[in-house]
């Protein structure tokens, strides 16, 4: 697979680090090495010692030396077993990408408490399977665009009326209005006077009107959809179900489930 078909993804890229973080003999969670090393580099404010210590390099295991507020994924069905670095669809271990089951355009508008516990819905897909699935995902997005009246290109929110009048003022400032019918010019001036309650329309006033700042906001498709979704759990399960129905997924992580309950952080 060449660079043109691998989208720049390294052939031997790993999605899961599978490093272990433990406390008092309890496996709390698995994570990337960068996160595990954070505990080894962060110093306790009182003792000046690292808040974690390296217990083993194979598997890479860090023991916390402080009592955490919670035990992470302990006693949970998903998230503690070693995760395989292979495409969940075809099984290849090459050119892996992170696939967010709930597309980013929607996920970015989820509550922060949910986004911080999204590891269940981040799965490894090779670039080929990823590209193939995204075409099916686009079809679901098109359906949601109709269902939630959320154009895929988003919508513009602004004072279109005000924009119209600033354009009129700009037109009247032009030096050469000879090509514009006098009746049209008079009509434009009357409309400005009526709109802004002006008796005398000077050049200075026209400059002021043409320079009015008009704020135009653009709401994205995802923002509109998520503002109308009333059941986030159901919405997420819809995307999970769509993913497994449009892919052969014999290599899903152990205990991965369409019905996995979303967990709020705090």
What would you say this structure looks like, in words?
This protein has helices at 3-6, 33-41, 104-107, 112-115, 127-147, 160-172, 182-196, 203-210, 221-228, 232-245, and strands at 19-23, 26-31, 52-57, 60-64, 96-100, 122-126, 155-157, 217-219. Helices cover 38% and strands 14% of the residues. It is an alpha+beta fold and 266 residues long. The strands form three sheets. It has a four-stranded mixed sheet with strand order 2-1-4-3, with helices on one face. It folds into three domains: 1-13 and 89-152 and 223-266, no CATH class; 17-82, no CATH class; 159-215, no CATH class. The longest helix is centred in the middle third of the chain and has 21 residues, at 127-147.
Give the key terms:
266 residues, alpha+beta, 4-stranded mixed β-sheet, elongated
Number of helices: 10
Mean pLDDT over the full residue set: 87
Helix fraction, binned, reads 25-40%
Structural class category: alpha+beta
Terminal Cα separation, in Å? 44 Å
- Overall spatial form: elongated
Task: Please trace the helix and strand order, writing H or E for each element.
Answer: HEEHEEEHHEHEHHHEHH
For the largest beta-sheet, the strand count, sense and barrel status come to: 4 strands, mixed
Q: Count the domains.
A: 3
Give me the side-by-side strand order of the main sheet: 2-1-4-3
Q: Please state the CA-atom Rg, rounded to the nearest Å.
A: 28 Å
Proportion of residues in extended strands: 5-15%
Please report the total strand number as a whole number. 8
* Uncertain residue segments: none
């Amino acid at each position: 697979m060449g660079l043109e078909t691998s989208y720049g993804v390294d052939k031997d890229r790993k999605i899961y680090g599978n490093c272990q973080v433990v406390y008092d003999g309890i496996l709390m969670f698995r994570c990337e090495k960068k996160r595990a090393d954070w505990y080894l580099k962060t110093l306790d404010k009182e003792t000046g010692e690292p808040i974690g210590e390296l217990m083993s390099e194979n598997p890479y295991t860090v023991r916390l030396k402080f009592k955490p507020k919670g035990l992470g994924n302990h006693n949970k069905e998903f998230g503690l077993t070693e995760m395989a670095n292979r495409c969940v669809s075809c099984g290849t271990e090459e050119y892996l990408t992170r696939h967010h089951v709930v597309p980013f355009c929607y996920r970015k508008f989820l509550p922060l408490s949910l986004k911080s516990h999204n590891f269940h819905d981040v799965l490894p897909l090779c670039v080929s399977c990823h590209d193939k699935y995204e075409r099916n995902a686009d079809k679901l997005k098109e359906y949601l665009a109709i269902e939630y009246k959320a154009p895929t290109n988003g919508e513009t929110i602004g004072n279109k009326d005000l924009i119209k009048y600033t354009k009129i003022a700009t037109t009247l400032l032009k030096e050469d209005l000879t090509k514009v019918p006098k009746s049209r010019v008079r009509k434009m001036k009357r409309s400005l006077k009526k709109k802004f309650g002006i008796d005398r329309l000077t050049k200075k006033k026209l400059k002021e009107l043409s320079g009015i700042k008009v704020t135009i906001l653009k709401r994205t498709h995802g923002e509109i959809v998520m503002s109308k979704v009333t059941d986030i759990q159901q919405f997420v399960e819809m995307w999970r179900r769509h993913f497994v129905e449009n892919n052969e997924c014999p290599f899903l992580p152990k205990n991965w489930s369409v019905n996995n309950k979303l967990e709020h952080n705090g």
